[in-house]
Design brief:
This protein has ten helices and no strands. By secondary structure, it is mostly helical. It has a single domain, classed as Ribonucleotide Reductase, subunit A (Orthogonal Bundle), CATH 1.10.620. Helix 5 packs parallel to helix 7. The site of one fe (ii) ion (FE2) has 5 residues, from helix 3 and helix 4.
């Protein structure tokens, strides 16, 4: 874990305490970014750049994922009794919706054909929010490394990369908020209910890992029919020459770099970086 920036008081806070909840909401509001996807001046691309951009296979999946996440998160605000945290979840819902708008604006501007799905209707507020949140913990982690590799390889023009940099920060904020919220939610439960909550979270994480293993096994072979986990499959398109070992190293570095900007008293997502670190140690460098 990176050292905490000096301006933060790193004394630990008890998860779920009023101070922790207040800090969580405050951090989220204070780091919200203002931008309007419909007012973006999209950079002019050469014919070759345009072709490369349009050929990326994940636009449809990205739009579908943001649609599900945006509606899930927005609806999940109703789960929260703390007014500040409820507002923070609503703001996250707005940001996810803005990601969908950003993708809509980009694909419209560059004439990339996309079908917009019907608004997603969450079935169970808490389970859907947990599923989306743990999914983001995986997707955002891989997206950070891929984004850095794409920036350095020149796969995307610099002007386009700069436009998407705030989205990376937003996803980091979302998973940071999420892991703190989950912990606060668990400790607010009566003791006897906590093991069941842990089990539900573990089961959701297992399902998310299984989906990633399916995707990883398909790398180099037939891509998954559903196009799920697009941040993992995107590796083949954006940084084909980088090994999985190299990608993991980059993801870990970027995760630490971007997370270090936020208050050190907030819990950090640990599971996905720990898995990545373990894989980094055991995988051969050539893979
Ligand atoms: Fe998003
Ligand atoms: Fe997000």
């Amino acid at each position: 874990m990176s050292a905490a920036p000096a301006e933060f008081d790193a004394s630990p806070l008890r998860a779920g305490s009023p101070e922790h909840k207040q800090l969580l909401a405050r951090f989220f509001f204070a780091t919200h970014l203002e931008y309007d996807p419909e007012r973006i001046a999209w950079p002019e691309l050469s014919a070759a750049e345009l072709k490369r951009l349009a050929a990326l296979p994940f636009w449809q999946e990205a739009v579908s994922t943001e649609n599900v996440t945006a509606h899930t998160v927005t609806a999940a605000a109703a789960l929260e009794s703390d007014p500040q945290l409820r507002r923070a979840i609503e703001l996250q819902g707005f940001e996810e919706q803005r990601h969908a708008r950003l993708l809509a604006a980009l694909t419209a501007h560059y004439h990339i054909p996309i079908t917009f799905p019907a608004p997603y209707q969450p079935r169970n507020l808490e389970s859907d929010f947990l599923f989306a949140g743990f999914g983001e913990c995986f997707d955002s982690f891989f997206a950070l490394g891929l984004f850095a590799l794409a920036r350095e390889s020149g796969f995307f023009p610099a002007a386009l990369v700069a436009l998407f940099d705030p989205v990376m920060d937003e996803e980091v904020r979302h998973i940071l908020f999420f892991v703190n919220w989950v912990k606060a939610r668990r400790v607010a439960l009566p003791r006897w209910k906590r093991p069941a909550f842990r089990l539900r979270c573990a089961w959701i994480i297992v399902k998310q890992i299984a989906a990633r293993v399916r995707t990883a096994r398909s790398l180099g072979g037939v891509p998954p029919a559903s196009g799920e986990n697009f941040t993992l499959t995107a590796h083949q398109d954006i940084a084909a020459s980088v090994t999985l070992h190299g990608l993991l190293a980059r993801c870990l570095l970027e995760n630490d770099r971007r997370m270090a900007r936020y208050d050190a008293r907030l819990l950090r997502p640990r599971l996905v970086p720990d898995i990545a670190r373990a894989l980094y140690r055991i995988l051969p460098h050539s893979l």
